[in-house]
Design brief:
Layout: H1 8-20, E1 24-34, E2 41-50
Antiparallel strand pairs: 1-2
Pfam family, one: DUF4177
Organism: Prauserella cavernicola
Protein name: DUF4177 domain-containing protein
Length: 54
């Protein structure tokens, strides 16, 4: 799980790191992430990976 602002370059680095560990990208979904303080939320993405077995 990652938090904070993430640039396109940082996201690409994270995706490449996960791929090098054998994970495959399955989905990227827009999400509203509720803040820890106060009402409302921030825009974010939920990235889902899968690692094939075998």
């Amino acid at each position: 799980m990652l938090g904070g602002k993430m640039s396109g370059d940082r996201l690409e680095k994270v995706l490449n790191e996960q791929a090098s560990d054998g994970w495959q990208l399955k989905a990227i979904t827009a999400a509203e992430v509720k803040g820890r303080v106060g009402p409302g939320g921030v825009d974010g993405v939920l990235v889902t990976f899968e690692r094939p077995t075998g």
